[in-house]
Amino acid sequence: MVSAPVQVAPPVQAPARVRRLPRWVAPVAGVVAVVALYVAFRGKAVLPHDDDAAVFHWLNDARDWVDANRNSSPIFLYVVNYLRLGVSEIYTLIQGALVALGWPGLIGLAAGLGWLAGGWRIALVSLAGFAGVGVLGFWEASVDTLALTLSAVVLSLLFGIPLGIWTGRSPRVRRIVTPVLDVMQIMPTFSYLSPIVLLFLIGPASATFATMIYAMPPAIRITSLAIQRVAGVAVEASESLGATGWQTLRKVRLPLALNTIMLGVNQTIAAALSMVPLVALIAAPGLGVDLLRALARVNVGAALIPGVAIVLLAIVLDRMTRAAAQRRDGGGRARVVRWGGFAVLTAAGLVLTPVLAQEFPEQWHVQLVRPINDVVEWIETHWYTFTGFVNDVVAYGLLNPLQDVLTSAPWWLITAAVLVFAWRVSGPVAGVIAAGCLVGVAALQLWQHGMETLTIVLVASVITIAAGLALGVLAARSRWFAAGLRPILDAAQTMPSFSYLLPAVALFGNGRFTAIMASFIYAVPVVARLVEDGLRAVPPTVMEAAKSAGSTDRQLLWKVQLPMARGSLLLAANQGIVMTLAMVVIGALVGAGALGYDVVAGIAQQEDYGKGLAAGVALVLLGVMLDRITQGANGRRSPHKKRNA
């Protein structure tokens, strides 16, 4: 019997592998398309600035309606006016109490609180700090600044801590509150001065409200985080014993979260102190008035001294609240020593108040204005060639070409380019929000000034991020360099933003580059710190494994540390850009122009109120756009992870 032949199946062919285009093709094609469209439509649909735009008149009419109905509308009669009077009374009460203590009593109270918070070291810092304010010759103005700061901090904590507790316990509330806090923190400080003045007029009340808006977000965020971090085991144990929700909150959650909440208090005070000088623009008393006068006279020494006084107040309040947050309750003896030291120091100051003069003795003042101005004059004389060269290089090499492109390109092309870029970098939601913000700037009739502001912000951000990245890398790789850099960064972060303007004016004159340099000094400390923290957070085991594989220091940085610190680097870029925007706006006071000038003009001149208010909204839109792009990029997976997914 013949067997049938065995049929062999044909070999299965593997499916043809689809060749993917290199990753760089799409971005390059997009850039080419944008350039081609720019060349084709350059100078069309550019939306030039118009000081007589209809939206400005509409906002002026709204202001006139508010002024006409301030004493007749129920909203103002029974809500807004009472809020203004109530906040004014809080400020008057605190300011009166501080003045009544006299300079010896206030110094003694500060030293006593320092002893209570952290022992003799903090007491010595508090005593030296407050005495230094008097020696600088700014005691009365410093008391007004302290009163305004405390008023804003009290209100911020009064509303911020309960709201933070609520958001910490409720995810639904947290989802609602978080976007509002994002906008409050992104918003440049100038942006809400106009609406605050419209509602509460000029003076301490409006200044307190403006400072409170700026200072409240840290209190809410950190309190919420503290409540969320309370161990679930402790909460479950309390509930299993029959405790109600209120009892668990009061006896378990709050005590365990207290130290972190105190850090929130610390950050709220720091934010309030940084804002207080700016509200001098709306007739707030204090050191900001001296800063504005010095700015008007271009007197660098007269501007730095009140800035140093604010730094001293900030250092004292910072050390005091940090020590209170880190304090561990000792036994009964330690408690007696703390309260005893507080009582002795405070009593000593109060006893000396009627004995010594009410005002800080003028013969104890140290005159530093003239020496500082002599140094500035020497720098202007000997460095003018170099500073002028740097100014011209940045202006003609970066600012002017970029501004020409942004202001001559069609508004729809820039909006589409931002939409695509933000979509690719941060996702579709960020892309739509970013494009919507630009549409809003166009609708406000402020496109040209918006692009001029964006030009300064982009150039300043590139310089700031590059310098911050370099400093952060050096600090992360050398503890000696980090130790030397830290006090410089501390001083730069504490100094009020106004104080940066005049040294920059002395070096570079009035103009856009002055605002860039001031924003550089203001923002680079935060960028450098975040970069350093991110690089130091890379696990030592990963570093050791890379070293054992033969990686050089350069390979270790570029292929291990920087990729693993991607989140911190993107956060550093985000914070650098947002802080740069805030400072560039203040640069309007030294000739930076654009939207910042519109806001200042709206505050100073009644006929420009509508333009100033619209410019404030446009600044918020630009801030939201830049924030969404950079913050959204942090939530996207890196290309390396995408390829390995």
Structural class: mainly alpha
Which stretches of 5+ consecutive residues score pLDDT under 50?
Answer: 638-645
Distance between the termini: 58 Å
Number of helices, counting only DSSP H or I runs of 4 residues or more:
26
Please report which band the strand proportion falls in: under 5%, 5-15%, 15-25%, 25-35%, 35-45% or over 45%.
under 5%
Compute the CA-based radius of gyration. 29 Å
Largest sheet: none
Overall helicity: over 70%
Overall geometry comes to globular
Structure, explained:
With 645 residues, the protein is mainly α. Helices cover 80% and strands 0% of the residues. The protein has 26 helices and no strands. Helix 3 crosses helix 5, helix 11 (287-297) runs antiparallel to helix 12 and helix 20 (512-536) runs antiparallel to helix 23. It starts with 24 loop residues before the first helix and ends with a helix. Keywords: Cell membrane, Membrane, Transmembrane, Transmembrane helix, Transport.
